[in-house]
Write a structure and sequence with these properties.
By secondary structure, the protein is of the alpha/beta class. Helices cover 35% and strands 16% of the residues. The chain has helices at 27-33, 50-59, 77-85, 99-105, 124-127, 144-152, 167-173, 182-188, 230-241, 248-256, 260-269, 283-295, and strands at 46-47, 67-71, 88-93, 112-116, 134-138, 160-166, 191-199, 204-205, 212-219. It starts with 26 loop residues before the first helix and ends with a helix.
């Protein structure tokens, strides 16, 4: 395993960029062989259905020049498919127990770097020496929002995200006004999300309680909210969604510690009815609200 990016002319044991036929990785056997059990506190549900793995890799649209950051590499079932298509794969895994097995599974490839660590604390620029790059991740719900912000606020954000996550969470991320959430705003301000395919729980080991989806997010060249205003945007959005059943007038007043009359004036100036709720606002309306908030030095 190398420590940096391989030159494009580097030889391969497999022909990169051509589809390969992999036998299904026997995840239960591998775990038993190494005396391991899935760690549910880490949300470990290993994707083992080959058709689903092909769909995940295909959703990333990887070509021979691409560098891929895989988060939650697990035992390497998906890593093999990524390595067969990409120039270089950085496979990050948090669970140190899995690292020896992961290295064993991908040892046939010379374009995979295995990194043991928590992606939320790693400096992405230090492990990905390339731009642009792609991210492919099989992630538990509890880190979804934090992970997305960590990736998209990096000094060199990815060009595309492909996330395997709970079906309901994927739907929430793709929501439109009248059904928006803080999570949806957190993603849509940076890129365009779309559900590529759904994956049944039976495709995982152990099977989770709910079905999953493959979510693809194509990242905008620039965020929908200008970068200098992003902190104010998230502060306003968190305040707006802090009390979902309340009107914007009341939720923003409580969240921002401002008089309701001041918030009402701000909303009216932005062309927003103070009686509306946060989930009804579009990104354009949040942008207008952030702009006015800045001019009033609130």
């Amino acid at each position: 395993m190398g420590d940096g990016i391989l030159p494009l002319a580097a030889s391969r044991k497999y022909c990169v960029g051509r589809p390969l036929s992999f036998s299904r990785l026997d995840v239960p056997h591998l775990l038993r062989q190494h005396g391991l059990r899935p760690n549910q506190s880490l949300g470990q549900n290993f994707l083992l259905d080959e058709a689903a793995l092909v769909q995940v890799a295909g959703a990333a649209e990887i070509n021979i020049q691409d560098v891929v950051l895989e988060i939650g590499a697990g035992l390497g079932s998906l890593t093999r498919h990524l390595a067969a298509a990409a120039h270089w794969v950085v496979a990050v895994e948090l669970d140190g127990r899995l690292i020896p097995v992961l290295k064993q599974v991908v040892e046939q490839f010379d374009n995979v770097q295995v990194v043991h660590g928590d992606i939320l604390t790693l400096n992405i620029a230090e492990i990905i020496n390339a731009s642009p790059y792609l991210v492919v991740a099989n992630i538990p719900y509890y880190i979804t929002s934090n992970l997305i912000r960590h990736l998209l606020e990096a000094s060199t954000p990815p060009q595309r995200l492909v996330l395997t996550l709970q079906q309901e969470v994927a739907r929430r991320i793709c929501a439109r006004p009248d059904d928006m959430s803080l999570l949806a705003l957190s993603v849509q301000v940076y890129g365009h999300p779309v559900i590529v395919a759904n994956i049944p729980a039976s495709a995982f080991y152990p099977p989770p309680r709910v079905d999953s989806s493959i979510l693809r997010v194509d990242i905008f060249a620039n965020p929908m909210i200008p970068s200098p205003a992003l902190d104010a945007f998230f502060r306003l959005a968190k305040a707006g969604f802090s009390q979902k059943r309340k009107t914007l007038r009341n939720s923003l007043a409580a969240g921002l510690h401002l008089p309701p009359s001041t918030v009402e004036s701000l909303l009216i100036s932005a062309g927003i009815d103070p009686r509306r709720r946060a989930e009804t606002l579009s990104l354009d309306e949040w942008h207008q609200l952030v702009s006015l908030h800045a001019t009033l030095n609130l």
